[in-house]
Amino acid sequence: MLSTDTRDPAAWPRLLLTLLAIALLWPGIQLSELDLGVLLHADSQSEMGRFVATFWPPAHDRDFLHLLLKATLQTLAIATAGMALALVLAIPAGLLASRALSLSAASHGGRPSLMGRLLRWPVRGLLIFLRSVPEIVWALLFVRAVGLGPAAGVLAIAITYSGMLGKVYAEIFESTDQRPAHALLQAGSGRLASFAYGVLPNVAAELLSYTVYRWECAIRASVVMGFVGAGGLGQQIDLSIRMFAGGEVASMLLTFLLLVLGADQLSRLLRWRLT
Amino acid sequence: MTLSLKQVVLHHANGVEALRGVDLQINGGEQVAIIGPSGAGKSSLLNLLATAIRPSRGDIDVLGQRAWHLSARQRQRLRARIGLVHQAPPLPPRQRVVTAVLAGKLGQWSMGKSLINLLHPLDIPGARAALARLDLADKLFSQCQQLSGGQLQRVGIARVLYQAPDVLLADEPVSAMDPVLAGHTLTVLSRHAREHNVTLVASLHAVELALAHFPRIIGLREGKILFDCPSDHVSHDMLDSLYANEQLQSPAPTVTPLIVQIPRC
After folding, report:
1. CB-based contact (8 Å) between B50 and chain A?
2. Can you give the pTM of this predicted structure?
3. CATH architecture of residue range(s) A55-274
4. Which residues, in sequence order, are CB contacts of B232 under 8 Å at separation 6+?
5. Chain B residue numbers touching A189 (CB-CB < 8 A)
6. Is A253 exposed, middle or buried (0-12, 13-18, 19+ CB in 10 A)?
7. Full strand arrangement of the beta sheet holding B224-230
8. How far away is chain B from the Cα of A68, in angstroms, using its nearest Cα?
9. Which of A61, B121, B150, B199 has the smallest number of CB atoms closer than 10 Å to its CB?
10. Cα torsion at B85, B86, B90, B95 (round to 10°)?
11. B221 interfacial to chain A (CB closer than 8 Å)
């Protein structure tokens, strides 16, 4: 009697899903050759310890700070220019890939016509292609095409990030209430105007915070790409690590922390302004 | 003939038959109320008249044009001449009232003008005038999320008044207002329609309001027109058969003994 009363029909599926997740994770750990024991071995510990010990004090002489400032500005410039180029492609692609501009969806209860759905696929395919190749691979390609320097990083970020931004923009456009836009379409307005009046006010804050977060990621990515010769902080970190100049690495990591902190504050400020 | 339906049938996507063969003629400048029980198809009928949804079968003529035989562009131009007031106006919560009202003319404005208007309202006096007729001018620069349900409904009506369409359709436009305000709002609507020779069709829950404000009444039940006559011909029997509900015979209230449970620990 009691057992039928307290039985939760979702209990078995949940238990099975948990077991399934563990069963899938285990081979993943095996395949990735993760062995945390290595970290505890004495020799690797002392090796890491020696390198980390040189981190203090962070380098702060005049010449180095000048170099650091230049590299930081270059990193910011790479990330910002890359994002700007990515947006040029991502915004129209996001609009085309989502149902937000669909006129037929407005009069068929949110389902676009077959034609519209078919036309959306090539755009989605393009976005998948753009983001499926990691930016580091594009950077290696472009370093060969346009030579060592920041230009390769800008192009690599522009390509990969347009794919990511376009996909997420399309999802954000679709995740919000479509009725305001549909009501405007049904009152004769154009597609873009109905999007700007019906969807944009709802999603502006989310779009902005995601874009700022991606900008932060682009800063990180531009650092990583610096290691393969695409300029900025990454190239400097690479040089300093090779020269075992721990103090310089520490200064640059601190700069990095400040950049991410700044991006976080900017995102918070913009969200606060928009909500 | 401003609005004409011929044998219109509408199936919803979930298979429910919302309208089953409706014939309807409404002349230019007429004022018509649609009444009927919940789920009778009032909203579906208004959406069809607004060319917002396509009928499964049958013909619709609006302002002399067969809406679903037009190209998408021509249909958008036709839709710009039709105004539909929604029961719960779909407005983005963060949009300002002034923008929401000015959006009524998006169908008539160019794209450039629409986008500039989003950054800076281009016709603040126009929006204020439309709101003032509904006693809401003080909310011009509020956000829609700060308004109550009844105020939102009036914003939706102000948008349609600002749109100045040739056909004005209203789906339960006063359902969230108190009786005095509801009466005032319907008066504003019907006066606007009379002054500008606009065809007005409204669905209403409150039968008294429909009888008081509209010269022609259409009774809709289970997707069919039960009666269509001048308001002074509507009798008690007609209303009883319109709203009759066999399933809602509420059982005589049985007095359930009150049991008070006192936890013992």
Report:
1. yes
2. 0.81
3. Orthogonal Bundle (1.10)
4. none
5. 76, 80, 103, 106-107, 114
6. middle
7. B82-85, B167-171, B199-203, B31-35, B216-221, B224-230
8. 40
9. A61
10. 30
11. no
Q: Which candidate in A113, A175, A197, A207 is best for mutational testing of the B interface (most B CBs within 10 A)?
A: A197
Per DSSP bridges, beta strands B65-66 and B3-11 are: unpaired
Residue-level pLDDT, tens digit, chain A, 275 residues = 456 677 888 889 999 999 999 998 888 888 887 777 777 777 777 777 777 788 778 878 888 889 889 989 998 999 999 999 999 999 999 999 888 778 877 777 666 777 777 888 899 999 999 889 888 888 888 888 888 888 888 999 999 999 999 999 999 999 988 899 999 998 888 899 999 999 999 898 889 889 988 998 998 888 888 888 777 888 888 888 888 888 888 898 899 889 889 888 888 888 787 76
Classify residue A78 as exposed, middle or buried by CB count within 10 Å of its CB (0-12, 13-18, 19+): buried
> Residue holding tokens 């995740």?
A175
Full set of structural domains in chain B with CATH? 1-81+166-245 (3.40.50.300), 85-164 (no CATH)
Beta-carbon pairs below 8 A across chains A and B: 94
Q: How far is B241 from chain A (nearest CA, A)?
A: 32
Q: Which residues of B touch A109 (CB under 8 A)?
A: 12-13, 53
Q: Which of B11, B54, B71, B91 to mutate to test the interface with A (most CBs of A within 10 A)?
A: B91
- Two structure tokens written together for B246: 């066999």
Judge: B54–A108 Cβ closer than 8 Å, yes or no: yes
When CB atoms are compared, the residue of A106, A108, A197 closest to B106 is A197
Whether residue A57 is preceded by a cis peptide bond, meaning omega within 30 degrees of 0, is: yes
